[in-house]
C-alpha cells in the first residue's frame, strides 16, 4: 500500500525521540517499509527516516512585519504550525488519490481532521491524547468524519462522547528492547514535566530505600525541573540526561523496576511498554491506559498520587518474574501486532473507498 504518515511538524522523527508519538510513528514507518509498503512521512525538520521512507518537505511562511503588527495576530509558532499543515492538506487534496491509498494522521493538529473530507483518499486518525478542544471543534464541522483509532480502551472511552474508535495498542520493535538481568537501580524515563511527576518517583524510591536513575528531556519544562527535580537529585538519585533508544534500553534492562508516575491520564504509557519488553517490572500510578498495559504478572499499580503506596509497589514489583514480564510484552505490545492492526484498518478503508 501507499501510505502517508502525518506526525508533528515541530518535532523531528529521530533519536532521542521527543516523546511517545514520535517513537510510535518511527516504529510504524519502519514496520510498514520493512513489509514492502510505500511510506511517505510528514514530520519536523531534521527527521532521520528509516530506510525506504520518503520525507515530505514542510511548507514555510514568512509573514510581514506589517501583518504581525496587527493587534489580533496569532503567535509565530501558531502560524508556522497552521501553514505547515495547511500546505500539507492542500497538497493532499490536489494529488491524494494519485499518490496514496491511505493517509494516517498521528498529529495533534486540527487541520488534518478538519480538512479530511476535502481529500479523495481515506484518512485514519490515531487518538494519542485525551479530548482536545480544537479536534472536537474540527469534528463538529466535518460532514464526513475520518475513521479513528485509539491507543487504549481508556482513550477510546474518553473520546466516545465525540467519536467512536477502534483500539490498536501502541507497540515496540522488540528487537530494540532486549531482555536484561535487572538487579540495578529503579528507572524513571520520559519527559521531565509536571504532569509526569518524576519528583514523586524520587520521593517514592527514597521512601522505599531504592536508588533511582532518571532519563529523558528536561528542556520542555525547565522551571519545573529546577524547582522540583534538581533539588531532589543526589543521595541515590541520578539524572542520566536525554538518552538515545539504545542507551535507554541499556538503563532499563539493567533496572530492577521501572517507575511510572503520571499525574494526568496517560492515553497509553509507552515507557511502561519499553520496560516490559526489557523484562523490567513496573510500579505505576493507576491512571489512563496504564492499567490496560500492565498485568498482575508484569506490574504493580498504586493509587494516583499516593507516594507511600507507590513505594510499596516499587518493592513488590521488584519480586516479579522477569521472564513473565517479557512474555506479557511479547503478547500485548509488539510492533508486529501494532503494524498488523493498522494494516487491517488501512485495508478496510481502502476497500470502502473502492466501493464508494
Strand order of the largest sheet: 3-2-1-4-5-6-7
Domain unit count: 2
If you average the pLDDT, what whole number results? 94
Give the H and E element order. Answer: EHEEHHEHEHEHEEHEHEHEHEHEHHH
Using the alpha-carbon principal axes, give the shape. globular
The third-level CATH topology of the largest domain is Rossmann fold
- Ends apart, CA distance between termini: 19 Å
Q: Provide a count of the helices.
A: 14
- The value of Rg in angstroms is 21 Å
Class computed from helices, strands and strand pairing: alpha/beta
Can you tell me the CATH class of the largest domain?
A: Alpha Beta
* CATH level-four homologous superfamily name of the largest domain: Glycogen Phosphorylase B
Amino acid at each position: 500500500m501507499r501510505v502517508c504518515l502525518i506526525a508533528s511538524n515541530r518535532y523531528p522523527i529521530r533519536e532521542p525521540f521527543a516523546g511517545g508519538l514520535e517513537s510510535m510513528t518511527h516504529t510504524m514507518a519502519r514496520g510498514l517499509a520493512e513489509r514492502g509498503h510505500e511510506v511517505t512521512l510528514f514530520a519536523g525538520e531534521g527527521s532521520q527516516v528509516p530506510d525506504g521512507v520518503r520525507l515530505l518537505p514542510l511548507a514555510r511562511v514568512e509573514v510581514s512585519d506589517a501583518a504581525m503588527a496587527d493587534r489580533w495576530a496569532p503567535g509565530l509558532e501558531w502560524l508556522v504550525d497552521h501553514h505547515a499543515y495547511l500546505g500539507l492538506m492542500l497538497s493532499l487534496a490536489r494529488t491524494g488519490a494519485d499518490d496514496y491509498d491511505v493517509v494516517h494522521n498521528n498529529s495533534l493538529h486540527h487541520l488534518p481532521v478538519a480538512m479530511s473530507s476535502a481529500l479523495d483518499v481515506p484518512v485514519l486518525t490515531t487518538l494519542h491524547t485525551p479530548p482536545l478542544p480544537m479536534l472536537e471543534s474540527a469534528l463538529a464541522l466535518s460532514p464526513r468524519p475520518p475513521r479513528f483509532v485509539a491507543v487504549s480502551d481508556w482513550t477510546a472511552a474518553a473520546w466516545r462522547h465525540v467519536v467512536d474508535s477502534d483500539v490498536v495498542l501502541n507497540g515496540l520493535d522488540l528487537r530494540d528492547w532486549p531482555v536484561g538481568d535487572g538487579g540495578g537501580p529503579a528507572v524513571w524515563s520520559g519527559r521531565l514535566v509536571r504532569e509526569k511527576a518524576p519528583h514523586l518517583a524520587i520521593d517514592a524510591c527514597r521512601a522505599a530505600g531504592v536508588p533511582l536513575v532518571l532519563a529523558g528531556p528536561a528542556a520542555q519544562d525547565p522551571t519545573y525541573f529546577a524547582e522540583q527535580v534538581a533539588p531532589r537529585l543526589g543521595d541515590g538519585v541520578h539524572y542520566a540526561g536525554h538518552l538515545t533508544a539504545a542507551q535507554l534500553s541499556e538503563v532499563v534492562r539493567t533496572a530492577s523496576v521501572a517507575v511510572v508516575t503520571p499525574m494526568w491520564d496517560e492515553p497509553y504509557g509507552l515507557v511502561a511498554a519499553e520496560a516490559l519488553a526489557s523484562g523490567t517490572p513496573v510500579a505505576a500510578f493507576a491512571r489512563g491506559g496504564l492499567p490496560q498495559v500492565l498485568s498482575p504478572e508484569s506490574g504493580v499499580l498504586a493509587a494516583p498520587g499516593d507516594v507511600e503506596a507507590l513505594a510499596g509497589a516499587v518493592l513488590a514489583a521488584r519480586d516479579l518474574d522477569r521472564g513473565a514480564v517479557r512474555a506479557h510484552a511479547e503478547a500485548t505490545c509488539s510492533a508486529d501486532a501494532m503494524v498488523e492492526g493498522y494494516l487491517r484498518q488501512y485495508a478496510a478503508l481502502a476497500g470502502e473507498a473502492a466501493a464508494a
